[in-house]
Write a structure and sequence with these properties.
186 residues; mainly alpha; Rna Polymerase Sigma Factor, Chain: A; Arc Repressor Mutant, subunit A; 2 domains; 8 helices
Length: 186
Amino acid sequence: MSDDDSALIAEIRNGSERAFNVLIDRHQQAVRGFLRRLLADASDADDLAQETFMVAWTRPGSYRGEASVRSWLCAIAWRKARDAQRAWFRRRAREARWAGDVEQIAAAPSPESAVVDRALAALPIEQRAAVVLCLIQDYSHAEAAGILGAPLGTVKSHVARGKTRLLAVLGGHPPSRLRRFDGTGA
């Protein structure tokens, strides 16, 4: 088994389940982390991560080698999340018309995480995706642009605006894992 992700994709194209399992082991955490930051429900994020890897298994030929395999997987995950959000909004509007009310559930594992997650949830999904990729998952602006299928300038704008909005919501004092937003940390 090769350490090179492109070689893994070649092996997956030939039907290697072992190569596919290695691909999952290498990139599952990054894909799930990205989706969990985008979506309010962790189980929805986990489901979409599985769907992302199923696309990688069933359509490995869609990887063209223009970016890293991780970026390719995150791009698939982004499209899945965007489609899921669109479906959710359509369903929510339909339920609101029929029932007149839709419940909102907010749950968070820790106070600091809850603050960050609520602040992120207040951002439009495009800004949220750019912020999560660039400021939390350490992708470059160019990599994020590739993942999101957006122009580089648009991604930079989303990150800047999202950062400004997050700092406003967080009172200018972000929790420790987001310190670099305001230049006070790593």
